From TrEMBL:
Catalytic residue list: H91 (proton donor)
Keywords: Riboflavin biosynthesis, Transferase
UniProt organism field: Methylobacterium brachiatum
Protein name, per record: 6,7-dimethyl-8-ribityllumazine synthase
GO cellular component terms, semicolon-separated: cytosol; riboflavin synthase complex
């Protein structure tokens, strides 16, 4: 017999397991206009699931992991939002790579459902089309990912023998 647990990417808004879930949104506002779009997309998804969002703002993507580490114990899932655009130096690799690595470590080590909506792009045009709610809506996608893993976690905990 094959047991198929559908994971993570497209939870249903009607999922009662997610209603009231406490979602921490940590946004880096290094690029304000992009941040507005990412946040709008994420909040619309969280609202559609009747979950509850708390938004915390940090200056740049490098500060997101520390904010998550400090605050995550009070929340069911986390959505990280930001944008890193390549410049002239190797700094891009540090900001993009280290923020992603630290978030992945936090998510796995703390069994923390986390959607990574930190764009890592070459140009502002690439960032805009990915951030815009009306286009690729990556903020909304990150929120769906976090909620999907939260639904998976709750289902796994409910199925675990006591
Ligand atoms: N260049 C970008 C940054 N850089 C700033 C860092 O994230 C950090 O705030 C600073 O090094 C102080 O610790 N941040 C972004 O979010 N996006 C960038 O493109
Ligand atoms: C992502 C970055 O770090 C970038 O914005 C910084 O630009 P630069 O490498 O030109 O200092």
């Amino acid at each position: 017999m094959v047991a198929h647990t559908r994971a993570a990417t497209a939870p249903m808004p009607a999922d009662p397991a997610l209603a009231g879930a406490r979602i921490l949104v940590v946004e880096a506002r290094y690029y304000e206009a992009l941040a507005d779009e990412l946040l709008a997309g994420a909040l619309a998804v969280i609202e559609a699931f009747a979950a509850h969002a708390t938004v915390v703002t940090v200056p740049g993507a490098l500060e997101i992991p520390a904010a998550v580490a400090i605050l995550a114990d009070e929340y069911d899932a986390v959505v990280a939002l930001g944008c890193v655009i390549r410049g002239e130096t190797g700094h891009y690799d540090i900001v993009a790579g280290e923020s992603a690595r630290a978030l992945m470590d936090l998510s796995v080590q703390r069994r923390l459902p986390l959607g990574n909506g930190i764009l890592t792009v070459e140009t502002e045009a690439q960032a805009l089309e990915r951030a815009r709610v009306a286009e690729m809506n990556k903020g909304g996608g990150a929120a769906e990912a976090a909620l999907g893993v939260l639904a998976l976690k709750r289902a796994a905990e409910a199925a675990r023998p006591r």
